[in-house]
Write a structure and sequence with these properties.
153 residues; mainly alpha; 6 helices
Length: 153
């Protein structure tokens, strides 16, 4: 009986330099393609691709897409593992109860987002709101915690 193949036994399909060339080449092609689209939109549609368009898509995103973005942002690895654990421990109802209990946070976030939009209609991100509300120090604290959370998660 032979031993299973390891990564050292399988030859690489490309040399390391060729692999980097493919990645950088495809990235450059994509960047050039997006630049060409932006130029064509500016020329024929009179659409300027500024920071407002980049951050909010001219505030033209529908409710369904926003809701799916909230749910996908909420569904992190820990959520998937915990709901699976509840389903294993309590059956199908365990996963349902986990999801029902966790949807309270989504509801609270939706209500908070509506109120934030009323109070700060020109703000794009929570960081902008925290800088206005808590000043420069609070702004940097939130940047630190947000960066740490995204790094760990």
């Amino acid at each position: 009986m032979s031993s299973p193949a390891t990564a050292a036994d399988v030859p690489a399909p490309l040399a390391q330099g060729a692999g980097y060339g493919v990645i950088i080449g495809i990235g450059a092609l994509f960047a050039l393609g997006m630049w060409a689209v932006a130029v064509l939109l500016a020329k024929f549609q009179n659409e300027v691709q500024g920071s407002e368009m980049f951050m909010t898509a001219k505030r033209s995103i529908g409710t369904g897409l926003v809701a799916s973005a909230v749910v996908s942002g909420w569904t992190i690895a820990a959520t998937l593992l915990t709901s699976s654990s509840w389903a294993y421990s309590y059956g199908v109802s365990g996963a349902y109860y986990y999801g029902a209990g966790a949807s309270v946070q989504i509801f609270i976030f939706a209500v908070s987002a509506i109120e934030l939009k009323r109070r700060a209609p020109g703000a794009h991100t929570f960081l902008e709101i925290s800088r206005i509300r808590y000043g420069r120090a609070g702004h940097w604290v939130q940047i630190g915690y947000s960066t740490l959370f995204q790094t760990i998660n």
